[in-house]
Amino acid sequence: MFSRILLILITCTLVACSNSAKQTYEQRLRVNLYCEPPSLDPRKCTDSTSANVLVMLFEGLTRLGDDHNPHPAVAEEILISDDKRTYTFKLRESYWSNGDLVSAEDFAYAWRKVLDPKFPSLFAYKLYVIKNGAEVKEGKRPVEDLGIKVLDERTLEVTLNHPTPYFLELTAFPTFYPINKQAELDPESITNGPFYLKKWEHESEILVEKNPLYWDRDSVKLDSIHLSMIDDTTTEFYMYEMGELDWAGSPISNLPPEILPALKKEGQIQITPASGVYYYKLNTDDPVLSNSNIRQALGLCINRTAIVEHITQADQVPAFALVPPMPGWNALSLYNDGDVENAQKLFAKGLKELGITKEQFPTITLSYNTNREHQKIAQAIQQQWKEGLRIKIDLETSDWKVYLSKINRQDYQIGRTGWLGDFHDPVSFLEPFKYRDNPNLGGNNETGWEHPDFGHYLDLAEQETDGVKRAEILQKAETLLISEMPVIPLFYINYSYLKKPYIHGVYISTLGILDFKKAYIKE
Questions:
Q1: Residue at which a domain ends, from 153, 187, 221
Q2: By the number of CB atoms within 10 A of the CB, which of 102, 131, 364, 376 ranks highest?
Q3: What's the pLDDT at 411?
Q4: Taking the mean position of all CA atoms in its chain, how far away is CA 478?
Q5: Residue 400's domain is classified under what CATH number?
Q6: What is the Rg, in whole angstroms, of the alpha carbon atoms belonging to the chain?
Q7: How far is 225 from 211, CA to CA, in rounded Å?
Q8: Which helix (H) or strand (E) holds 306?
Q9: What is the rounded distance in angstroms from the CA atom of residue 485 to the CA atom of residue 284?
């Protein structure tokens, strides 16, 4: 009898262990993040790599759903005044990963810190829609004048400078996430999102696990997500083929461009449009790049069609303006592709204005972060500029964290970048160039360019409630920006990725976020 009971207990234990191991394996996702996130402090996040980890760890007042619209998240109820300027957020009962209640003060604390003149937040300008936000950041007003009121532990009132139709999208953005005061030095150590940070081996891997205290934990099916940091796209592809990764490619990494044609032919790859643009920034404080005719010559000389057809090969669309197509907005076409003849005329005019000859024109350095696709694009443009303008271009590469730091310090001449909208509105692409960066206002301009008329157009658009008139004003702003060419748009971004057929429920935002909150694995 004892032997029989023992056998039953052993059998049940083995079955339970087997089922448990199977369940843990099945709900463990493996992806490649490509590179180290520069920061997991939501208030300092400026890049999509960091944002894709932060959306796992944190949750704002709202969260984007698979319909691309913002939905209540930590905020259970949202009341909007008749004049569209005052938002009252009533918070649901939700908790931090250490057991603390997520309070209205946690949001107010985080936002006030972002707008503290002494706090380094490049995206502080996103909070300028809040009443007196810019003045507080500049030190012209005390923080008490900020349009934020904590009415009680679970009620936050926010007053805006003007009606902002995309404000609820902003509250889903990392810069608007709450912060637990106890984790001020390491914000990622206490979080309120679907997952919590289990392990972070810098330059190697990140492991997040399901947060048992998350308010919507029943919607979270994955037990863990393992994020590798492999900066070679070919290695990533082979790991996917060998079954070591469940997802490969955009928007958290890339696939080798040379394999895309074969994958497309075999019907393996998935390609979807993103609300983003790939472009080059120009340091207009540089002696020769300070001349707008030189900048325009560089922009017009590029053959974008050749780049997307022979290098990127993921059905990208050449960009002849900065703002990509999106609902309610048709992309502008402000110049011709590969217009070498006009480029040469503008270049000659620029040389004359600078008082130098073509022989005296210095070598320009084109910088990009380490990536095979970025390298091939840079090499192609280097050759196009050599043939079309007879100038010498040096190429410089560095890893993402170092590269981003150099761009932020404006320590470059021409630099590769990409911009995915933070919300679905043209303003998301235009507002970074309203002011040149400064220590008080922060910013993500990084070109040194500023124009009073451009800022005036954006101010007018803020006040305009008629959608058609607002679009016309924003078109004027974009046309001015492109005519000055502190940025050179190249193409509109598409996502190209591979995913295993057993992965379901992943939300791919057109704004560059891969949200695994509702993802699950089912054979």
A1: 187
A2: 102
A3: 96
A4: 20
A5: 3.10.105.10
A6: 25
A7: 12
A8: helix 304-307
A9: 9
To which residue do tokens 């392990």 refer? 199
CATH of the domain at 114: 3.90.76.10
Q: Residue 111 and residue 179: Cα distance in Å, rounded?
A: 9
Distance in angstroms (rounded) separating the CA atoms of residues 322 and 299: 12
| Residue 234 phi, psi (nearest 5) | -65, -45
Q: Do both 302 and 156 map to the same domain?
A: no
Question: To which residue do tokens 């021409």 refer?
Answer: 414
Closest to 113 (Cα-Cα) out of 99, 124, 103? 124
281 CB-near residues (< 8 Å, 6+ apart): 407, 412, 414, 415, 417, 446, 447, 486, 487
Residue identified by tokens 């803020």 is 462
Strands 28-32 and 224-228: parallel
The reply to whether 27 falls in a domain is: no
Distance (Å, whole) CA 377 – CA 313: 12
| pTM for the whole structure | 0.88
Rounded CA-CA distance 387/385 in Å is: 5
Contact present, 381 and 366 (Cβ < 8 Å): yes
The amino acid sitting at 350 is G
pLDDT surpassing 80 at residue 17: no
The answer to whether residue 6 is domain-embedded is: no
**3-class secondary structure, 241:** helix
Dihedrals φ, ψ of 108, to 5°? Answer: -60, -40
Classify strands 507-508 and 75-80 as parallel, antiparallel or unpaired.
unpaired
Same domain membership, residue 344 and residue 488: yes
Domain termination site, one of 136, 163, 187:
187
Q: Evaluate whether residue 248 is within a structural domain.
A: no
Q: How far, in Å, CA of 438 to CA of 300, rounded?
A: 30
Q: Confidence band (pLDDT; 50, 70, 90) for 22?
A: very low
Could you tell me which of 382, 455, 453 has the C-alpha nearest to residue 414?
Answer: 382
Looking from the CA of 166 toward its CB, the CA atoms found within 13 Å total: 16
Q: Are strands 364-369 and 414-420 parallel, antiparallel or unpaired?
A: parallel
Closest CA to 102 of 171, 178, 173: 178
Residues 303 and 409 in one domain: yes
- DSSP letters along 145-199, please? GSSEEEEETTEEEEEBSS--TTHHHHTTSGGG----GGGSS-GGGS--SSEEEEE
Strands (E), 178-218: 195-201, 205-210
CA 151 to chain centre: 32
Residue numbers of the domain that contains 455: 271-495
Q: Which helix (H) or strand (E) holds 409?
A: none
Pairing of strands 195-201, 205-210: antiparallel
Query: Is a pLDDT exceeding 70 seen at residue 8?
Result: no
**The total number of structural domains that make up the chain:** 2
Q: Measured between alpha carbons, how far is 224 from 284 in angstroms, rounded to an integer? A: 45
3-state secondary structure of 76: strand
SS (HEC) of 200-228 = EECCCEEEEEECCCCCCHHHCCCCEEEEE
On the question of pLDDT at 21 being above 60, the answer is: no
Q: What's the mean pLDDT in 183-188?
A: 95
440 pLDDT band, cuts 50/70/90, is low
Residue 2 has pLDDT above 50, yes or no: no
